[in-house]
Every structure is written in structure tokens, then in C-alpha cells.
Write a structure and sequence with these properties.
Largest sheet: 5 strands, mixed
CATH class of the largest domain: Alpha Beta
Oligomer: single chain
Helix content: 25-40%
Order of helices and strands: EHEHEHEHEEEHHEHEHEEHHE
CATH architecture of the largest domain: 3-Layer(aba) Sandwich
Number of domains: 2
Radius of gyration: 18 Å
Strand content: 15-25%
Number of helices: 10
Length: 260
């Protein structure tokens, strides 16, 4: 089906005191070290200059699968904020007291898509999955990436998990899964809808019904070990602003901030 833009995202409000930090320009802006889920890295790169203009702080991003980033945080990696591709990873960090519960923010809600770089290859209902028209199907690693978990859930729902297993090409994260498809190493791939949006009108895609897989409610949180808490709180608070929301929606995610 033609690639269309349509999505929505939910964002929770951090404390009002944090919001004040967004409009304050510190005399010396601090670097905010953000561990960001691979699917959102490109969007964050576009957002970062606006955040710097608003606060004086600079984003230093490290992208990867949510599972790998969370593991690195557990081992003491020097990050200030985690932007996960789910909410469960953030919850685990909060429970382990490695993240500050009052800073949790749902900064985006993602959607899963079946994508091919070939125009007309993917139909409007994903029926191509039931055929032998492809030899390889790329997915993110379900052990590390929420988008991989979502892909596995869809294949199970369709009763195709066993049939498709020999054709799977597994990437460490959804960015790598998308790359497999974009380079032709896989004819099909389960990727983030935002990646399809970024590809413009190239290729073909099926937007998977959201009810067919666990919700991709992406949350951010300030990490307890951060040595620049004020700057980190300012970043998470800024994610709730209309300026941030405009970037998020334009990228193909849902964004709808609301109080807890």
C-alpha cells in the first residue's frame, strides 16, 4: 500500500518544576548523554538542536537496542537519560532504583510495519507473508528489541511463526532490520512505521494493526546515577513540549501529552 502518515503518541508529564528548566538558559549548558532506542535515533537528531536552543544543553546520543542499552545501564554505563522503545524496560530500571520514577515520560507511541524496498511487493493486508514470494524476512532481535517482540507476536497471531522461522534475518535492533531490507539483503522486514515514513514513497508497506502486538509505548526516564540531573530533567521535561511533539508526529509516531 502507499506509504501514508498517520500515528499518535502519548506523553506523561514530569513534575512542574522540571518544566521550568526547559525555559531557563543555563550560563554553561551541560551535555545530556542520552541512550536512545535505535528506531528513534534519527528523530532525536532532528530534535536536538531545538532542545539546545531552548535550554542551552547539548544532546550526546548513543543508539542501540533497548535491551542492550538497559544492560549497559545496569553495568554502570555513564548515561543521563534512557529513551526506551517500550515502558517495561523503564519500569525495571525504576524498580531497581537505577532510574527516577518521577521523571518517567511516554515520549512516543510507535507502530509496527511490514516493509519492502520493492514497490507493490507488500499488499494492504500483509498477505504476502503467506506466500513463497520471498526468501528472507528481517526482524529485530526479540530478546533485545521491543519491535522484535512485536514482530514475533504478529507472526504468532497469524500462525506463521514456524513457517517463517527459517527465513528470518535477525538484526540486533530495528535500525539494522530496516537496513537489511533497504539494502536488498531481505525482501521483507518488520520495522518501525517511522522508518517507513522516513523512506518517503519508496517501496511498499503494510501498517500492522496496533492490537496485534504489545503496545510500543516508548518511555524516557532520568537515570539515578547521572551527575547532571538538572540537565537530564530539563531534557525529559522538554519532550512534553509542543516543539518536541511536532518532531515526533512528523516522524510518524503518536504524541499526546497529558498529566498523570
Amino acid at each position: 500500500m502507499p506509504v501514508r502518515r498517520s500515528m499518535a503518541l502519548t506523553c506523561a508529564t514530569v513534575l512542574g518544576a522540571c518544566l521550568a528548566l526547559v525555559t531557563a538558559h543555563p550560563a554553561d549548558g551541560a551535555d545530556v548523554r542520552v541512550a536512545v532506542a535505535a528506531n528513534f535515533a534519527a528523530t532525536l537528531a532532528k530534535m536536538a538542536p531545538d532542545f539546545q536552543t531552548a535550554t542551552g544543553h547539548i544532546v550526546r546520543a548513543t543508539a542501540g537496542s533497548t535491551g542492550k542499552l538497559a544492560a549497559q545501564i545496569g553495568q554502570g554505563a555513564p548515561f543521563d537519560v534512557l529513551m526506551a522503545a517500550d515502558s517495561a524496560s523503564v519500569e525495571r530500571l525504576v524498580v531497581a532504583k537505577r532510574a527516577l520514577a518521577d521523571t518517567r515520560c511516554a515520549y512516543a507511541t510507535g507502530r509496527l510495519a511490514l516493509y519492502s524496498a520493492q514497490p507493490g511487493f507488500v499488499d494492504a493486508a500483509g498477505a504476502v507473508l503467506h506466500t513463497d514470494a520471498f526468501a528472507h524476512l528481517a526482524i529485530a532481535n526479540p530478546k533485545l528489541a521491543p519491535y522484535g517482540v512485536a514482530a514475533a507476536a504478529v507472526m504468532s497471531r497469524l500462525g506463521l511463526a514456524s513457517r517463517l522461522r527459517p527465513r528470518l534475518v535477525v538484526g540486533e535492533n530495528v535500525a539494522q532490520a530496516f537496513q537489511f531490507v533497504a539494502t536488498g539483503n531481505a525482501e521483507l522486514g518488520f520495522v518501525a512505521w517511522a522508518q517507513v515514513v522516513a523512506a518517503g514513497q519508496r517501496g511498499s508497506a503494510w501498517l500492522v494493526p496496533a492490537a496485534w502486538h504489545p503496545a510500543l509505548r516508548q518511555q524516557a526516564v532520568v537515570l539515578a546515577a547521572s551527575d547532571r540531573i538538572d540537565a537530564a530533567r530539563a531534557f525529559v521535561a522538554w519532550l512534553q513540549t509542543p516543539a518536541a511533539g511536532a518532531h515526533v508526529r512528523a516522524a510518524g509516531y503518536q504524541w499526546e501529552p497529558r498529566a498523570r
